[in-house]
């Protein structure tokens, strides 16, 4: 083999072939797998299904998205957001209908990806993104509180030890991830010392067999479609929103770009596979992704794939051992993840004083709604709506109308500047002196832009008022898009009387 051929082969090898990268990816995947177990069990309980369904979903989602996803190193598994969406369906119609909804939701995600849903991410303001991150951090922290209420005092001692290891060990060495050391050390201590504290095994039964491929046992009728379609659509939208925003967050952390369209249809494929193996569906997980990317330092698909493999091995082959892990160790890991996820700079007094109030209002509304509803889709939706309203209000105040009378007194020229749309053009009709103006009026729009039918209707109202008084009105200076919109709509927006 020639030297150029050798160099080509070396360039084609995956990045994780390097021993140092491989070690990082393997250890990160193991940490994520350990953190996934109690989360998947808890989300299964929220959804009202057997813990095995959540664990199988986490396994199949991680393995599939490692291949189909568009964001390297991002973790997808069973999530609380999806659990909240499908819980009513599982409660009212049973697990088989839930699985059917997961498969249909995956199909809808592929359809939405083909329709370009990923491009909508560009319309998310930065303040909504910050609110999304801060709300996630609060939810991650809040989800750990039940494990700290009504427990023996030894739990708090173990938690303190876990936090000390996670914070202090990196100052000594980074060869082995500190969270993994904390989990192993505290598990060994509780076993050897015979300390009785809540463990992973107390959260629910772990599976002892592999998931089986099959179709949900539901009738293939329109009635079934009517039942599952609303839940499938909600699952598709919530899953894509959380996944795409998490992908954008990882893009910022790693200074790399991801393929959002591929991630969208990849999530769909992962949910279809998950449903066929009897899982409850899922999407990207911000907490476990932060463990993988920020704590573990993973950057490739291998960590995501291994997280799924390790998860299956841990719960099926090593279930009795995993069941002995104290919850205090995992709670310590998740608390540090929450602290690392929160954007502390955004709430500093100096930042808040410098930031426009509208931006702060958008961030706060996103956080408040997300935390109150435990639904990221609601929080982001409200945040975007607040941002739109405040932006429209701010832009509407930038429209100015000034009138200048010609020296001969026979013509008055009104110069309109600014962005003309429904919020700014509603008061346009009151900016003219209909009774006092001369016989000819020119409205100069060279410094303005017409955006919608509301503005055309407002200009129609102005010209109608002038013509009723025998005044000739001429509109000039429109740019090409404004002229085209005005020509198409002028005189056709109100019924003739």
UniProtKB/TrEMBL annotation:
Membrane topology summary: Multi-pass membrane protein
Domain of life: Bacteria
Domain STAS: 410-497
Residue ranges crossing the lipid bilayer per the database entry: 52-68, 97-118, 130-149, 155-173, 180-201, 228-247, 268-287, 307-340, 361-392
Alphabetical keyword list: Membrane, Transmembrane, Transmembrane helix
Any one of the GO CC terms: membrane
Chief subcellular location: membrane
Subcellular location: Membrane
This protein's name: Sodium-independent anion transporter
Species assigned in the record: Pseudonocardia asaccharolytica DSM 44247 = NBRC 16224
Organism phylogeny: Bacteria, Bacillati, Actinomycetota, Actinomycetes, Pseudonocardiales
